[in-house]
Structure formats: structure tokens, C-alpha cells
Amino acid sequence: MFLTHVLRWLPAPWSGQHVPTRLAKAMAPRQASTADDHALAAGQSTLLRLARGTVLHLRGGEISVEDAPALWADHCWPQPMRLRAGETWIVPRTGWWRIDGRPSWDGVGRFSLRR
């Protein structure tokens, strides 16, 4: 009797134990998300290796995406592209991309990457 009472309150189910729905949901393995979520405040920067065809969706804020600097007239010029909330960009080629958070009324630049 005492052993049954103790086993009933254990977090792991044992054979013959009724598992409440709340506990069953907590113990269920979580599905891996296909999205990779990021957030950058104004002035923050990250360097990501992105594969060709990856979709970057900006959910809020403002960011700039910069490729490796391009040579033009014997000078190296970065070519940043600014994205605002709600915009989507598809990575044109595999490589390293620098993503910078920009000041905006929406605050933090939140974006997700999907392959």
C-alpha cells in the first residue's frame, strides 16, 4: 500500500499508473523546430554561415545583411542590405553573412532562418 502511494507521486510513469494529461504532455519528447530563431538589438552583430536557398524572415525590428566586401575601383566596399519587419530574403549563395541589428521603432530585430 505504501509503495503504491509513493509510486503514484513519482514524475515518471510506471506500469499500471494513470498518467494525467498535464504530466504526459510535459514528458513527451519535443519536436525539433525547423526554424532557427535569432534576436539582435541595435548595435549587435552576428556572423552566420548560411546555405544557398535559406530563407531569412524578419519578424520585427530592422537588420542589415552584409556579404563579403566587393572590390570596386581598387577599393573594398561592403554592400549591406537593409531589411525591415515583415520582409523576407533568400540567401543567393552559400557563405558567411554578417547580420547587424539596426535601431528601429520596433526595438529588437527578430528573425528566423528556414532551410
Account of the 3D structure:
It is a single chain. By secondary structure, the protein is mostly beta strands. It is built from 2 helices and 10 strands, in the order ααββββββββββ. The chain has helices at 2-8, 21-27; strands at residues 35-40, 45-50, 55-60, 62-66, 70-72, 75-77, 80-84, 88-90, 95-101, 109-114. The strands form 3 sheets. Strands 1-10-3-8 form a 4-stranded antiparallel beta sheet, with no helix packed on it. β5 and β6 (75-77) form a beta hairpin.
Tally the helices.
2
Please identify the oligomeric state: single chain
Shape: elongated
For the sheet with most strands, the description reads: 4 strands, antiparallel
Structural class assignment: mainly beta
Question: How are the strands of the biggest sheet laid out side by side?
Answer: 1-10-3-8
Q: What is the CA-atom radius of gyration, in angstroms?
A: 23 Å
Distance between the termini: 54 Å
User: Poorly predicted ranges (pLDDT <50, ≥5 residues)?
Assistant: none
| Order of helical and strand elements | HHEEEEEEEEEE
Strand content: 35-45%
- Name the average pLDDT: 76
Indicate the percent of residues in helices.
10-25%
Number of strands: 10
